[in-house]
Design brief:
Layout: H1 7-26, H2 44-67, H3 77-87, H4 92-111, H5 115-118, E1 121-123, E2 129-131, H6 134-149, H7 161-178, E3 184-188, E4 194-197, E5 208-212, H8 214-221
Parallel strand pairs: 3-5
Antiparallel strand pairs: 1-2, 3-4
Length: 240
């Protein structure tokens, strides 16, 4: 594990990721939104709807942090999925407008939070109780990774190295906590960082050693590649 990320880091990555996603989307012709993405079963329309709806959901958490009034991200996973499906049939112009407006709204709501409100506990869509500072990280992760998923020429290698390190920290911690996959020892060839992932209890044995660049490790751990540099590595269960 490379280290802890700060709120300032997360806000910086959120801003940079938002610009990266917006630029990738702006460069994507409307007809390309009808094509499949790297996410199984999702077209570009689904992906843009998801990113737009995510910003709306995080506005709910920002409201919770500011007022103390509980406001979950989504009423249910079923409603979340239904909203994405409904959003995916909007016109390209409507989708682009929604993505931009929801991102701007989230930026405004987060800018209103003071130090005390940033530390207020809120609950993620996965049911984790976290300080509101995590809202910025959740959004940074969303826009950075999905900028790659759009298939508009952005790769993991185009994302900031310190963000990739934080992303690998985040994913390895989640995979270790879930304990439902292989045990791994991961080494970055372009940084002095190593990570371990605890494997499932029934899979006793030495961890598999996986090496690659930060970008390659992030792509593998997030399920976007079968292994670093597309070299074979132990298959992983779903990340999120």
């Amino acid at each position: 594990m490379a280290g802890q990320r700060s709120l300032a880091d997360s806000l910086r990555w959120m801003a940079e990721g938002g610009k990266t996603f917006s630029a990738a989307l702006a460069g994507l012709p409307d007809d390309r939104l009808d094509r499949p993405t790297a996410l199984t079963g999702w077209t570009g329309r689904h992906l843009v709807a998801h990113v737009a709806a995510n910003a709306d959901a995080l506005v709910n958490l920002a409201h919770w942090a500011r007022t103390g009034e509980e406001r979950p991200m989504y009423t249910s996973f079923e409603q979340r999925d239904a909203d994405i499906q409904a959003g995916a049939v909007r016109s390209p112009a409507e989708l682009r407008s929604w993505a931009a407006a929801s991102a701007e709204q989230l930026d405004r709501r987060l800018s209103e939070l003071d130090e005390r409100q940033w530390s207020r506990p809120v609950r993620t869509a996965q049911g984790r109780t976290v300080p509101a500072t995590e809202i910025a990280w959740l959004r940074a992760r969303e826009v950075m990774v999905h900028a790659v998923d759009l298939g508009a020429g952005v790769g993991f290698g185009d994302l900031p190295a310190d963000f990739l390190t934080a992303l690998i920290d985040d994913i390895t911690a989640k995979r270790s906590g879930a304990g439902d996959g292989p045990a791994l020892t991961l080494t970055a060839t372009d940084a002095r960082d190593t990570w371990t992932v605890a494997g499932a209890s029934e899979r006793a044995g030495d961890p598999a050693e996986v090496t690659g660049t930060l970008a390659e490790l992030a792509a593998y751990l997030s399920g976007r590649a079968p292994g670093p540099g597309d070299r074979p590595a132990p298959p992983l269960p779903r990340w999120l």
